[in-house]
Every structure is written in structure tokens, then in C-alpha cells.
Design goal:
The structure holds three protein chains of three kinds.
Chain A: H1 2-22, H2 35-66, H3 84-114, E1 122-129, E2 132-137, H4 168-171, E3 174-176, E4 179-182, E5 186-193, E6 198-202, E7 207-211, E8 217-222, E9 227-232, E10 245-251, H5 253-265
Parallel strand pairs in A: 1-5, 4-10
Antiparallel strand pairs in A: 1-2, 2-3, 5-8, 6-7, 9-10
Helix pairs in contact in A: 1-2, 2-3
Chain B: H1 7-36, H2 48-68, H3 89-115, H4 124-155, H5 159-190
Helix pairs in contact in B: 1-4, 1-5, 2-3, 2-5, 3-4, 4-5
Chain C: H1 15-20, H2 25-55, H3 64-67, H4 78-97, H5 99-113, H6 122-141, H7 173-202, H8 215-246, E1 258-259, E2 262-263, H9 271-305, H10 312-325, H11 341-353, H12 355-369, H13 378-400, H14 403-409, H15 413-443, H16 449-475, H17 488-491, H18 494-524, E3 565-569, E4 572-574
Antiparallel strand pairs in C: 1-2, 3-4
Helix pairs in contact in C: 2-4, 2-5, 2-6, 2-18, 4-5, 5-7, 5-8, 5-15, 6-7, 7-8, 8-9, 8-10, 9-12, 9-13, 9-15, 10-12, 12-13, 13-15, 13-16, 15-16, 16-18
The chains are: A alpha+beta, B mainly alpha, C mainly alpha.
């Protein structure tokens, strides 16, 4: 039975590793300026983890295969060096790896989430609600109108609760159900939630961020390719959570201006 | 067979650790909530709280005196079982009275606040006031049952069990006093 | 308050006292195991329903419509899927993984392993079981209220869990019952921890120093301390959540929320406060789920390898280090939560450091296999399986521990695969190993080894087929907690989901072998001797099953630690802890 276990572990290890290496199910190509940094971190972790995984499982399988009690009066053996090589090995191999991954990874993390956005970034207000996203552009005056939750009325399309009658800054705000952005332009999203927690996730941008009711949370990125992709919700928000999505469209500068004009006409 | 340490005493220490952690959680919730939004309404603590504080401190003193005066003296000849002096039950009775007086005082404080329109939900500060005093009061009530149990054991004159119960109940009760002093300070500085 | 009275050698005779409200830790331990058996069956059925729906969303499940009014025509709606998921997680984490390896096996075995007659507080012990039982009933009752169970996940994030029924189906009574149930469970757990700690510190028999305690006792002791602190924080969190729900307070609910077209009457609260309180409990909780498994595997391996565990003191130090560090890492569940992103970096450091003691313990187990004379009985196989799945699950943790990578993988199936490997599989394997190992002691009969081996190999293959693919799904960006995959980029994952569903059903079916073995062996199993495994610890010095006071009126005296294997003892290649023979000068090598 031990030998069977050893064989099963070996097969599982080889097949799993093979599938990981084959990239049959893998991250979609990224189109974010900082995406390559995350992918690099992912690859480093994948390689080091992969080696640890394969070695640990195969050594386990090997020992199980080899050290059965075959009623042969063989004397037991203690691992050379006792526990010391385990402690040293774990601290050096695992510990050193960890240090490296943490140091490098924290830089990438900081560049995306800690560093402030480009001061000239295009600001877009994002509201998440059960079960849709709405996006608001500041319009020609460059200012966002104030939000009034008590004025929210989906039937008139006033998703954000704007008060254009009394608030001049709100009059030229452009509201859309799609997030269109110009390519190669720093974008600063300001995320707020209407009802419960949600999240903004675009796998190809390699970023996500929770919407927390009561807070306005910034998220910035720069898209470097013309494309269209899905924005999905990763924070459980109710029964429509699985169906909550919007589209991110990365347009050329001219197409973006056209799109913005079309939206403001509505 | 058993180690000399009384499991009851260990148990109370463990209970103290758990209760401390839970009030630490309430405290951090208070601090975070106070900082999360400018809707914290400060109000004056009902003056009876000062009186209640003195009452609970006094109850610790009387309990301490009851315990200190409790020797295992006058063993009945031939039985080997020590007896506890009945007159020192008086201090225990005073402690119990003071305990209930404290709880009554806390309820008076609630009525005082409710009379001013400050209820559980009216503002976060009043929420925490009711919550912290209620939680402390509940745990103190548990301590009172512990002391009642001590009375029971003392009257049954089983010295070994009485002393064990006494030590455990005293430790718990003094912790309730210290906990109240901490909560009172927190409420006085933040509410 | 009371201590075991040595005049109870005979035990109580009345039906209620003997079988229902027993004060005997052995009966209470079995009651906990029975409860978790019911819980795991329920949790597993819930998972099959979830998996069927994910593979075939339009499927009408025969019979479901009759028992669940929310699933009209037997078809699982999106909200019902989330309710099933919430109850699956809650039941499994609390009533299986926290109950069986700790309250169940620990209650039965720990007092015997330290040479005591019972737990320090038998009445509290009895109460803690029945309070756990009440908590389970309250939780399950959420299935029967109008609108059904809550749908906010076992994590119950506010404000979804706090605002009441406006937030969605199940968020009315269902969620309230959930909060009450978990609050009650906290109280039961605290009583249990109290007992384990006082018993371990105060009731060890003569010669049983802390250093000589078996590894499983150490693990239960450390687990009970973790639980004491963790559940002491969850209880206040539940109180605050309940008050927000029923008393109009605003601990977790900010102002200006518009839900179901209604402006909610709350203001100023912080949703992140719930997350901090919950995860301060939640992360130590996962170590509560796994540490007993560490102890059980470390305890069984020497007996089945016939050699001492490598580095016994190092192992104990690592368990203590893990326990301590477990309180410093909770923020790694919140990297994307909106808390200050710099704190993510701060939390990632202890998160990665905690891998070191975990890696050391894994290497100690593997190193113990070197040069062994392994006996591949079922308990041994589950220990070996534990090592394999713990390696897999632990390594996937490396990815999630780094905020930069969590940025991509958070909220995907990668996380689901990770925690199921470590909790759903490794922890379960620890429970299985413990059951197969201690069944003879508990019931006086051996379990059937052939059935056990089939159970093991089918389960081992099955769990890898279920949970390894989830990592690939996660890498492809497949989001978790979705009742269906309608996004363009996720539709391609459905075939793999169907494969996982088939594997899950197959693995579930394999558990029938275990259930059958359990029940059959109770009545038809071979009669078990006192020490069928030739093991060293005190539970093997007494009869199978033990008498009411565990040792038949006498108190064992301990001369050795539990690790004397592979030595020339009078009974064979081991020396029992209570054997007065001297330790040999040098171990065989």
C-alpha cells in the first residue's frame, strides 16, 4: 500500500506540474503599464514554489517507497544531522526565498497601491451597487458634482444622486455604464459603494480593489493597449454578485473624445 | 495525584484572560468607531457612576477582609476537617449586598441616560456606554453567583472546598473591580 | 469549581446521566464526534448541491424542491446557491474542523494521555458540548425560516450582513440566527478551552512533566490557548453585529447607504471594523483547525515508523511559534479591503515568516520517514496523505501571502483551492488519522483495514482531483462565490468545473466506505487489545475501552517521554511512558 501511495503521489506531482507548466489555464495577457512587474513576481514565485512542491512530494514518495517494514530486522536510521538540517534548511531555503520575494514584491505593490497617481491622471468616479457599476467623468469643467444618496433615482438615470438644478459642478458630469479610457494615459479611479461592499477586478490589468461603503478609495492604472475587457466583482455583494460586470474599453485618444461626446449627449 | 495548584484557580485566571481579550476587542471597536466618523456625541457621565465605583471598590475591600479573616481553625476533634468561623460570613454578606448595590446603581445610570433621550442607538457614544456597562454587569453578576457559592461552601464547613472557592471567587471579583476601574476611565475620557 | 472524585470508579448508572448528560470526558468526546459526523454529512451534501449547480446551472435536482422552498422545481437560484455556500462554510469550519479534532478527539484522549481521571471541570465539559449542540440547532434552523439561510458567506462581511433584510434574501431572520448561533458557539468554545488549559496544567499525573507530554496533548493545549484568545474576540464581534441588526446601532454601517431603494437609517459605522475583528479571530481559527492535526500526525508517525519523531522539542517550539505568529497576520485576508495599502506590506512579513515553522515541521515529519520501518495501516496512510496535502496547500499560500500576487489572485478559485487543501483536506486527514488510530481505544474494536485503505486511496486521489484544478481556475481569473459563470472570459472554465464536480461526487461517495466501516466495526470489528499499535503513550496502558475513571483506580507514574521508539525495550522496540525500565544509553542507528 505504501508503494501504491508513492506512485500516486508521483503521478499527481508530475501531472499537476505539467499542467501548470503548459499554461492551459493561465493569466490572460496583461495590458497594464505595471502588469509586467506582477507577472514577473508571479513567475518567480511559481518557479521557486514549483521546485519546492516537486522536491517535497517526490522525496515523500521516495521515502515511503523505500522505508517499509519488510519484516527484515533492518535497524531504523536517524536522518543524518537530526533535526538541525531541517531547521537550517527551512530557514535558509524558505526564509531566504521569502525575504527575496517580500522585498521585490513590496516594491511592485507600492508602485501600484501606495504610490499616488500621476497628478495629471484622468479622474473617473466609480460607483458600485447591487448589481452594476456606473462611471462618472467630470466633464469640461474638470470638477465632480456632489453626491446626494437621497436623490438617487434609477428610473431617471440619476444613478449617482446628482443635483444639477442646484449644483453647477454636477451639470456637465458624464455618467456611463462602460468604463472607457484613453490608451497610455494615467487613470485615477475613485471607488465608492452605494449599498454594500463590492470590488473592481480586471484580470488583464492585474489589479483589484474593494469598494467599502463609507469610504472613497483610489485606484490608478495606465492601459497600454487598445482593447475591450470585462470588469467583474470579487467581493460577495448579494444574489447578483455573479452577474455584476461592466466593460473596460481602452480607446485611442480620438476615439475616447468621440465616445465622451456621445455619452454627454445622452 | 493532583498537582498542588487548584484547577479552580487556573480556571479563573484563564477566564480572566478571555474576558480581558473580549473587553480589549470592545475597546478597540470603540476607538476605531470614534475615529471613523464625526458623529460621536459627547455627553456627561451620570454622576451616580462615581458612587458605583466607590461601591465596587468597597466590595473588593470587604471581600478581601472576609477572606483574610478566614482561617481554617478549630478543627473538630477526630475529624481532621477544619472549620471556618461563622462570624466572618458577615463580611461576605456585605460584599454580596455591595455587589447588588453596584448593579442597581448601574441600572440607575441607564435610567438617567434614557431620561435624557440617550438610548442604545441614539449615538455611538451611548451605544458603547450601554454595551460596556451591560457586559461588565453581566460578568459581575456571574461573580456574585461565585460568592454565593462561597457562602454555601463556608456554611457547609468543608474547609478545603471553601478555601478553594474563596480564592477563586476573590480573584474573579477583584478582577471585576479592576475591570470596572479601566472601563470607568475609558468612558470618562472618551464619552 | 469541582475536581474529579476518585470514588467514581464505577460511573453513573442512570440512562440520562450515562448517555446524555454525562460528565465523563470520554462520552462527551464521542458526543462531539457524533455531532461533527452529522455536521460533516450536512456540509458535504451542501457542497454537492453547490458543485452540481456550478457544473449544470439549469439542473433540476430531484427532491430538492420538496425540502427547499427556495429552490422551485429543484433548480438552485443564485441566492440559494449563496445560502448553501454560506452554510457549507459555517458548518464545516465551526462544527467540523473546530469540533472534531479538538473538542472531539481531544476530549476523549487528552485526559488519558496525561494520566488524569477526567477533565478539570466535568460539569463545564458537559455544558460546553450541549451549548455547542444548541448552537448547531440554531444554525440549522436558518434553513427553515422564510427566505432561508443567509447568503453573506461564513465571513459575513458588513454591511451586507448588518443591514437586515433589505440586503437580500436570507438576510433577515437567516442572518440573525447565524449571528446568534456563532455567538453561542463562542461561549461553548471558551468553556472548552478553559477545561483543556486547566486540565493540562493541573491534572498531569506523577512524572508527566510538560516535556513528557505526547505531541497530540501539546497540540490540543496550544490549540486551546489560541481558541481562548480568538473566540474571545469573535464573541464581541457577533454582539456588535447583532446590535446593528436588531437594535439600530451603527458599529459597522456607515451613513448614506441606499439598499433596495431605501436610504438606510444608520450612520458612521465602519465595515472594515468588522473585517478586522473577524479576521483577528479568523486567522488563528485556521490554526485551531490544523494544529490538532499536527499533533495527531506527530503522535502517530513514531508508532507507525517504529522510530522516534525527528526533533521533538523543535516540533513543539514550532507549534508555539505558529500559535504566536497566528495573531500577527490577520491583515493578509484584507490586502484588497481598502485598508491602508502600506499595512499590506507590514502584514505580509509575518505571513511569510510563519511559513518557516510550518516548513520545519513538514521537514521533521518527512525526515522521520527516513530510515523508518513503516507499517502502512490506514492511520499511517492518512498521516502520509496529510503531509502531501499540507505541502500542496501550504505552498499555494506562498502566492497569496504576497500582496502583489494577491492583487491578481484575491477572490479567485486559487484561494478556494488553497484553503480547502489546508483546511478541508489536511485537517480532515488529521481527523481521519486520529479516528483510525484511536477507534480501538474508544470502542474496544479494530476498524477494518481493507475498507480503510480503500477509503484512503480513493479519497486521496479524489481530493487532488477536486482542489488542484481550482488553482488553475484561479490563475485564469475565475472568480469565487459565483453561482454561475456568465462572464465571457470565464465560460471556458466550465468543463474544468464539471470535472471538479464529478470528482467531488466520487470523493463523497468514497466517504460511504468510511461511514460503513465506522458503524460495522462498532459491532463486528475484531476485539481490540490494550495496545494494538505498540505505542508508548498512557492511553495504551489501559484497557480498550478504558474504565470509567480511565485507569481502574490506580494512577500511572511516568518515567519517559512519548518518543521512545526504535530502542530495546522489554516489550519490543519501544518503551512505554509508564515503564520503570531505564532509557537505553544510545538509540539504535
Amino acid at each position: 500500500m505504501g508503494k501504491l501511495f508513492a506512485i500516486v503521489v508521483t503521478i499527481i506531482t508530475i501531472v499537476s506540474t505539467g499542467i501548470f507548466l503548459s499554461h492551459i489555464w493561465w493569466m490572460p495577457p496583461d495590458f497594464s503599464l505595471l502588469g509586467a512587474g506582477i507577472d514577473h513576481q508571479m513567475m518567480e514565485t511559481m518557479v521557486t514554489s514549483g521546485v519546492l512542491f516537486v522536491v517535497a512530494q517526490l522525496v515523500l514518495a521516495g521515502f515511503v517507497w523505500r522505508f517499509a517494514d519488510n519484516n527484515d530486522n533492518r535497524k531504523i536510521k536517524i536522518f543524518p544531522g537530526g533535526a538541525t538540517p531541517m531547521v537550517v534548511g527551512a530557514i535558509i531555503l524558505v526564509g531566504a526565498e521569502i525575504l527575496a520575494l517580500t522585498l521585490v514584491g513590496s516594491k511592485i505593490w507600492a508602485s501600484i497601491y501606495v504610490a499616488p497617481a500621476d497628478p495629471h491622471a484622468l479622474k473617473i468616479d466609480v460607483q458600485a451597487e447591487q448589481f452594476a457599476y456606473y462611471f462618472r467623468y467630470p466633464g469640461p469643467d474638470g470638477k465632480f458634482g456632489t453626491l446626494h444618496p437621497d436623490l438617487i433615482d434609477a428610473s431617471t438615470g440619476n444613478f449617482f444622486g446628482l443635483d444639477p438644478a442646484h449644483d453647477t459642478a454636477a451639470r456637465d458630469d458624464i455618467v456611463a455604464a462602460t468604463l472607457a479610457v484613453p490608451v497610455n494615459t494615467p487613470i485615477q479611479l475613485e471607488l465608492h459603494a452605494k449599498d454594500v461592499s463590492h470590488a473592481f477586478y480586471v484580470p488583464e490589468l492585474r489589479i483589484q480593489q474593494d469598494f467599502v461603503p463609507g469610504l472613497v478609495i483610489p485606484l490608478h492604472f495606465t492601459a497600454i493597449r487598445l482593447t475591450k475587457s470585462e470588469i467583474v466583482c470579487t467581493q460577495l455583494c448579494g444574489l447578483g454578485h455573479y452577474n455584476m460586470r461592466a466593460y473596460l474599453e481602452v480607446l485611442s485618444a480620438d476615439d475616447f473624445k468621440k465616445w465622451l461626446n456621445e455619452q454627454s449627449g445622452q | 495525584m493532583k498537582s498542588p495548584a487548584s484547577p479552580a484557580q487556573t480556571g479563573v485566571w484563564v477566564g480572566i484572560a478571555a474576558i480581558t481579550m473580549s473587553f480589549a476587542a470592545y475597546s478597540s471597536a470603540l476607538v476605531v468607531r470614534q475615529g471613523a466618523s464625526p458623529d460621536w456625541v459627547h455627553f456627561t457621565l451620570p454622576p451616580i457612576l462615581f458612587f458605583n465605583t466607590l461601591v465596587v471598590v468597597a466590595s473588593s475591600v470587604t471581600l478581601f477582609m472576609a477572606r483574610a479573616r478566614t482561617g481554617t481553625t478549630a478543627a473538630r476533634p477526630g475529624s481532621g476537617a477544619a472549620v471556618i468561623d461563622a462570624p466572618h460570613l458577615t463580611w461576605l454578606y456585605v460584599t454580596i449586598f455591595l455587589g447588588f448595590l453596584f448593579l442597581a446603581g448601574q441600572i440607575m445610570a441607564w435610567r438617567n441616560l434614557a431620561g435624557q433621550g440617550l438610548t442604545l442607538a441614539s449615538s455611538p457614544s451611548s451605544s458603547f456606554f450601554y454595551l460596556l456597562t451591560a457586559m461588565h454587569g453581566l460578568h459581575l453578576l456571574g461573580g456574585l453567583t461565585g460568592i454565593l457559592y462561597v457562602v454555601y461552601r463556608v456554611r457547609r464547613s468543608n474547609a478545603v472546598r471553601a478555601v478553594r472557592a474563596y480564592n477563586a471567587a476573590s480573584l474573579y471579583w477583584h478582577f471585576m473591580t479592576v475591570l470596572w476601574l479601566y472601563l470607568f476611565a475609558m468612558l470618562a475620557t472618551r464619552i | 469549581m469541582n475536581s474529579p472524585d476518585s470514588s467514581h470508579a464505577a460511573g453513573p448508572q442512570g440512562f440520562w446521566r450515562k448517555y446524555v448528560f454525562s460528565l465523563d470526558h470520554k462520552v462527551i468526546g464521542r458526543q462531539y464526534l457524533d455531532l461533527s459526523l452529522v455536521a460533516v454529512t450536512t456540509g458535504m451534501i451542501l457542497s454537492w448541491l453547490m458543485r452540481l449547480h456550478l457544473g449544470w446551472p439549469a439542473l433540476s435536482i430531484p427532491g430538492l424542491g420538496a425540502i427547499a422552498p427556495e429552490a422551485t422545481g429543484g433548480i438552485i437560484t443564485p441566492e440559494y446557491y449563496l445560502s448553501l455556500m454560506t452554510m457549507h462554510g459555517t458548518i464545516m469550519v465551526f462544527f467540523v474542523l473546530t469540533t472534531a479534532p479538538f473538542a472531539g478527539l481531544g476530549n476523549f484522549i487528552l485526559p488519558i494521555q496525561i494520566g488524569a481521571e477526567d477533565m478539570a471541570f466535568p460539569r463545564f465539559n458537559m455544558m460546553s458540548f450541549w451549548v455547542t449542540f444548541v448552537a448547531f440547532i440554531v444554525l440549522v434552523s436558518a434553513f427553515f425560516v422564510p427566505e432561508g439561510p443567509p447568503l453573506s458567506g461564513w465571513t459575513a462581511y458588513a454591511p451586507l450582513s448588518a443591514v437586515g433584510k433589505d440586503a437580500g434574501p436570507g438576510q433577515g431572520w437567516g442572518q440573525t440566527l447565524w449571528v446568534i448561533s456563532i455567538g453561542i458557539f463562542c461561549i461553548a468554545q471558551l468553556l472548552g478551552s478553559l477545561n483543556f488549559i486547566a486540565t493540562t496544567l493541573d491534572l498531569r499525573t506523577k512524572g508527566m512533566s510538560l516535556a513528557r507530554m505526547p505531541f497530540s496533548t501539546w497540540a490540543w493545549f496550544i490549540t486551546s490557548i489560541i481558541g481562548l484568545i480568538a473566540f474571545s474576540v469573535l464573541l464581541p464581534a457577533c454582539v456588535l453585529l447583532l446590535l446593528d441588526r436588531v437594535a439600530g446601532t451603527s458599529f459597522f454601517i456607515p451613513a448614506g447607504l441606499v439598499i433596495s431603494d431605501r436610504l438606510q437609517p444608520h450612520a458612521g459605522g465602519s465595515p472594515l471594523l468588522w473585517q478586522h475583528l473577524f479576521w483577528f479571530f479568523g486567522h488563528p481559527e485556521v490554526y485551531i483547525a490544523i494544529l490538532p492535526g499536527f499533533g495527531i500526525v506527530s503522535h502517530i508517525l513514531p508508532a507507525v515508523t517504529r522510530k522516534p519523531l525527528l526533533g521533538p522539542r523543535v516540533l513543539i517550539a514550532c507549534m508555539i511559534a505558529i500559535a504566536f505568529l497566528s495573531y500577527t497576520v490577520w491583515g493578509h485576508h484584507m490586502f484588497m479591503s481598502g485598508m491602508n495599502p502600506f499595512s499590506a506590506t507590514v502584514f505580509s512579513v509575518p505571513t511569510l515568516i510563519i511559513t518557516i515553522p510550518a516548513a520545519i515541521t513538514t521537514l521533521l515529519w518527512i525526515g522521520t520517514l527516513y530510515g523508518a520501518r513503516m507499517r502502512y495501516n490506514t492511520a499511517a496512510l492518512f498521516c502520509l496523505g496529510f503531509i502531501s496535502v499540507f505541502v500542496s496547500g501550504g505552498i499555494s499560500g506562498f502566492f497569496l501571502a504576497q500582496p502583489a500576487i494577491d492583487s491578481y489572485l484575491h477572490g479567485t478559485y486559487f484561494v478556494v483551492g488553497h484553503f480547502h487543501f489546508v483546511m478541508g483536506v489536511a485537517s480532515m486527514f488529521g481527523i481521519f488519522a486520529g479516528v483510525y488510530f484511536w477507534f480501538p481505544k474508544m470502542f474496544g474494536r479494530m476498524m477494518n483495514e481493507t475498507l480503510g485503505k480503500w477509503h484512503f486511496i480513493l479519497t486521496f486521489i479524489g481530493v487532488y482531483c477536486i482542489f488542484m484544478p481550482m488553482h488553475w481556475l484561479g490563475l485564469a481569473g475565475n472568480v469565487r462565490r459565483y453561482s454561475a459563470f456568465t462572464d465571457d472570459y470565464m465560460k471556458g472554465s466550465i468543463p474544468l468545473h464539471r470535472f471538479i464536480t464529478v470528482a467531488a461526487l466520487f470523493t463523497g461517495a468514497a466517504q460511504l466506505i468510511f461511514f460503513y466501516n465506522l458503524f460495522r466495526s462498532r459491532f463486528r470489528g475484531e476485539i481490540a487489545p490494550a495496545n494494538p499499535w505498540q505505542a508508548t503513550s498512557l492511553e495504551w496502558t489501559t484497557s480498550s475501552p478504558p474504565p470509567h475513571d480511565n485507569f481502574g483506580g490506580h494512577h500511572p507514574v511516568v518515567y519517559h517521554g512519548p518518543n521512545e521508539y526504535g530502542v530495546a525495550g522489554k516489550d519490543g522496540d519501544y518503551i512505554m511512558q509508564n515503564s520503570p525500565e531505564p532509557e537505553p544509553v544510545a538509540a539504535a542507528s
